[in-house]
Design brief:
The protein is α/β, with parallel strands linked by helices. The protein has a single domain, classed as P-loop containing nucleotide triphosphate hydrolases (Rossmann fold), CATH 3.40.50. The chain has 9 helices and 5 strands; from the N terminus they run βαβαααβαβαααβα. The N and C termini lie close together (11 Å). The structure holds adenosine monophosphate. Adenosine monophosphate binds next to α2 and α3. The site of adenosine monophosphate has 17 residues, from α2 and α3.
């Protein structure tokens, strides 16, 4: 099964993806994690994206599409992929559909974690101190949230039109949200 965990920054996508990796032998494909690894390694790619990520803007579609493509075989060999933080634009979503189709696969389900903006801001205020992520500060977070609302949320009708979109309340505890996702996955 190929699943997209969809939702704004700090909705709990990463936490839920990690749980599914353990429970279902799926592979978490987080473009944010891949980009942070590139920065940590000091690679050319890392140098190109560091400033953009720190500000809270999206990096280019080409970069993230290539990162995802290189990891698809690994996900196929396991129980499927959990896309976490990808796709974030319509161009990415279309590219993903084409890449999967070329491999005889598809997106099976899109789970949207619904969390209201106020709760997100509170979560991020708590996370900043712990995560050490430079883009968890209030200014960058406001830009990330805006990027979600303007560039990523418009994907919802795209997946609803394909009949793949399910909404799960993301405001509860980690276990409650997990139960909602499990119910959606069947
Ligand atoms: P995340 O860990 O998913 O919140 O991503 C952290 C940052 O990495 C984002 O704010 C973007 O700068 C960049 N990023 C991650 N995934 C994508 C993507 N699919 N498209 C564009 N930029 C991305």
């Amino acid at each position: 099964m190929n699943l997209i965990l969809f939702g704004p920054p700090a909705a709990g996508k990463g936490t839920q993806a990690k749980r599914l990796v353990e429970g279902r032998n799926m592979v978490q494909l987080s473009t944010g994690d891949m980009l942070r690894a590139a920065i940590a390694s000091g690679s050319e790619l890392g140098k190109r994206v560091e400033g953009i990520m720190q500000r809270g803007d999206l990096v280019s579609d080409e970069i993230v599409i290539e990162l995802i493509e290189s990891r698809l075989p690994e996900a196929e060999a396991a129980g499927g992929a959990i896309f976490d933080g990808f796709p974030r634009t319509l161009a990415q979503a279309e590219a993903l559909d084409i890449m999967l189709k070329g491999r005889g696969r598809q997106i099976d389900l899109v789970v949207r974690l619904k969390v209201d903006d106020e709760a997100l801001k509170q979560r991020i205020a708590g996370r900043f101190a712990e995560s050490g992520r430079p883009d968890d500060n209030p200014d960058s977070f406001a830009i990330r949230l805006n990027a979600y609302n303007t560039q990523t949320a418009p994907l919802l009708p795209y997946y609803a039109g394909q009949g793949k979109l399910v909404e799960v309340d993301g405001m509860g505890s980690v276990d409650q949200v997990a139960a909602g996702i499990d119910a959606a996955m069947g």
